[in-house]
Amino acid sequence: MIEWLADYGLFLAKTATLVIALGVILTLIAHGRRKGQSGGGATLKVVELDERFQRRRRQLRLAAEPKASRRQLAKRLKKSGKQADKQSAKERADANTERVWVLDFNGDLKASGTPALAELVSLLLEEIRSGDEVVLRLQSGGGLVHSYGLAAAQLDRLRDAGARLTVCVDKVAASGGYMMACCANQLIAAPFAVIGSIGVVAQIPNVHRLLKKHDVDVELLTAGRYKRTLTVLGENSEEGRAKFLEDLASTHDLFKHYVGERRPGLDVESAATGEIWYGSQALAAGLVDAVGTSDAYLLEKQRQRARVLKVSLETRTGLIGRLGKGVDSRLEKGVDGVLQRVDDLRWQRR
């Protein structure tokens, strides 16, 4: 009997330990989700693109060097790299050094990246100094009017604050995407990037006749003459259809006015037909200011000795991911240094 009680007690202890452990894990998960929903789950990441470019350029030079002379080249590069680091440190300390802040926006139908964009804009407005530039690499085929109206308003905040805003379009900035792009002081598009589509579209299916055929009635009750103009289930009237078209035209006028204010040199009436242009055509039409890629533009900035800093918000995914994101930046830099030396040895041995 005593032995049975001892076994039973041990079983209860194990069970309690398991329940407590599961409780702790579930609490951590719930806390992480609440933190993510409140915006605290995203971490700010800043990468100096020039440093990454120079590191890869170093690897490329070693790879292209004859095997016999790679070791000597690696030593020279290491020595010159230290000198460059000292020079870079001096430039960082120089208040007159131009800083280019790079943001990315990949838009979907709902412009879901707007909250992150708004937070980054707020952060930059506190940090930007005279002579700085913000470069937005934009890609979007447009979407909901109110969603992209809010996204464009975030870029207007930069422009209203006097910041230099350059928008680079490598693939597409159409409809709501162009609404955002036109906020720029300088708009650059790749030769075959899709630009324009200044128009408004709406499509509503109607199954009223199908329901009527099966003796199904739909009661649509509204207070207000135009509370509902076109419906999916009910019978649409000519008055409702006319009002819907009127609303579309009004939205289109607002769109044209918005673009015209930000690009006064553009013939908006000719451009606002809903058509799209490719980058080279868009330049001739006045929709963009230059033809080129974001890569070429940022590389030129690096050659001009500007500091090019890519800024983003990264969402932590899962407990392990959150723990991983907590690694100290100095440790990360040390790891990068070790990896660079390993790469040097890899090329020397080939």
What does this protein structure show overall?
It is a single chain. It contains 13 helices and nine strands. The protein starts with a helix and ends with a helix. With 350 residues, it is α/β, with parallel strands linked by helices. It has three domains: 1-38; 96-197 and 275-315, Alpha-Beta Complex (2-enoyl-CoA Hydratase, Chain A, domain 1), CATH 3.90.226.10; 200-266, no CATH class. Strands 1, 2, 3, 4, 5, 6, 7, 8 and 9 form a nine-stranded mixed sheet that branches.
CATH superfamily of the largest domain: 2-enoyl-CoA Hydratase, Chain A, domain 1
Number of domains: 3
Estimate the mean pLDDT confidence: 81
User: Class of the largest domain in CATH?
Assistant: Alpha Beta
Q: How large a portion of the residues is in β-strands, by DSSP E?
A: 15-25%
Q: Treating each run of at least 4 consecutive H or I residues as one helix, how many helices?
A: 13
- Number-wise, the strands total 9
Gross geometry = flat
**Alpha carbon gyration radius:** 29 Å
